[in-house]
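I hope you will forgive my troubling you with a question about protein structure. Could you please explain, in whatever detail you think fit, how the structure tokens follow from the sequence? Thank you for your consideration; the sequence and its tokens are set out here.
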Amino acid sequence: MILPDNQVKSGTILVVDDHLPNRELLDELLSSQGFKVVTAADGREALQQLRRQSIDLVLLDVMMPHLNGFQLCARIKADPDTCLIPVILVTALSDRQDRLDGIKAGADDFLTRPIDHAELLARVTSSLRLKQRTDELERAESVLFSLAQSIEGKDPYTHGHCERLSDLSAGLAQHLGLPDDQVLALRRAGVVHDIGKIAIPDSILLKPSSLSADEWKIVREHPIIGERICRPLKSFRNVLPIIRHHHERLDGSGYPDGLIGDGIPMTARVLQIVDVFDALTTERPYKPAFPIDRALETMRSEIERGWWDPLVFDEFVEFIHGDTTNSLPVQPRRELKTGR
């Protein structure tokens, strides 16, 4: 069978099966269609192959010694380096529970023996097409992250700022019990939140003295520009509100939209707290690095002025107390309003 020209004809496929005839059959069939095929006789060898080279798809037998297909699939999906590789379970099992176990392990598709060659090629092609789209998305995200880091790299005083915000805001989100998609959005937003500054001239961005009113007007455009840059990526839909609103203030004095109170998305309020804390506890041209207790007291005074969410701040203090020895009092936990 020859695949139509508009279908995927490339990719590296890992065939995992403890029976040599099965491996040879799949190798011959897939190689004849232009795919690169590597094989493994068991789960342990498969893990070695995954570490050794770039794999686009795994065809995985279920009934194997040492590490069965369900266990290997779960290992592949649990590893950040391999979790996006499609896994097709190939098995003679047709029991409903076996399919449920495969789904729980993270399998992307199933093939039942005896294998229909046309069905195999169709499922392989479909999975590889999905993998190509995932790879394109990852490349686009990588470009955005590299662009954001290049902006950070212009200023030696902000070195490591994005990485710290990414880790701290995601950690605080988990502490707050926010959904996984919001945790991921904050991890990404920590890196790209200021990507709009790419449009700000270095003469303004790196100016050592106070900015003029006109220069401040230009700076205040960067959240809108950043949102526009990232908008084409559908995977960033939960990141966009953070980029746009991380400079808002609860009293409405922030920018770019002057949002008030719970009108500011919860994820943006989380990043605000972490962003201010990092700015206070690192050296800047206009100030030394504050000790943690002084930074938190400064933030408390800003909360009294109506700038930041006091409930998120209280949770942040509790969160960082898990990693510090300062003895600032922590306010009792109260219900958080997540806003929109």
Summary: Residues 1-7, 324-340 have pLDDT under 50 and may be disordered.
